């Protein structure tokens, strides 16, 4: 079987699974596993199916992003982000455009602490939007 035909069959199979209501992650995993089985045979397909998730899950990026988002939520739930915002607001409130400057400075400080722009937007956005 040619690679082009296998790719077309895989895309069609995945679309059929999605139309049947299978979640995207399961549809992609099933289509990929069946595609490996067809193209490489059962032995290598089983080895790849077991080893690829382990190797990709150990990636530094896949470990840090959820932890940064978790840290952002912990800071938000404990009120530390509100305290940070209030502290910056007391320093800059008398400056014209102080609310916007406060938002930028607080987001910059929080982004420096967490290292994740996603966590910063999720956390500080919930605090800054009602104030603005």
What descriptive keywords fit this protein?
132 residues; mainly alpha; 7 helices; elongated
Q: In brief, what are we looking at here?
A:
The protein is mostly helical and 132 residues long. The chain is built from 7 helices and no strands.
What fraction of the residues are assigned to beta strands by DSSP?
under 5%
Question: What's the structural domain tally?
Answer: 2
Report low-confidence residues grouped into runs of 5 or more: none
Terminal CA distance reads: 60 Å
Helix content: over 70%
Q: Please identify the oligomeric state.
A: single chain
What do the pLDDT scores average to? 84
For the sheet with most strands, the description reads: none
Structure explained in plain terms:
It is a single chain. The chain has helices at residues 3-19, 24-40, 42-57, 60-78, 80-92, 98-114, 117-131. The chain has 7 helices and no strands. The model has no long low-confidence stretch (mean pLDDT 84). Helix 4 runs parallel beside helix 7 and helix 5 crosses helix 6 (98-114). The protein folds into 2 domains: 3-58, no CATH class; 61-131, no CATH class. With 132 residues, it is an all-alpha fold.
Q: Which helices and strands, and how do they pair?
A:
Blueprint (H helix, E strand, L loop, with lengths): L2 H17 L4 H17 L1 H16 L2 H19 L1 H13 L5 H17 L2 H15 L1
Helix pairs in contact: 1-2, 2-3, 4-7, 5-6, 6-7
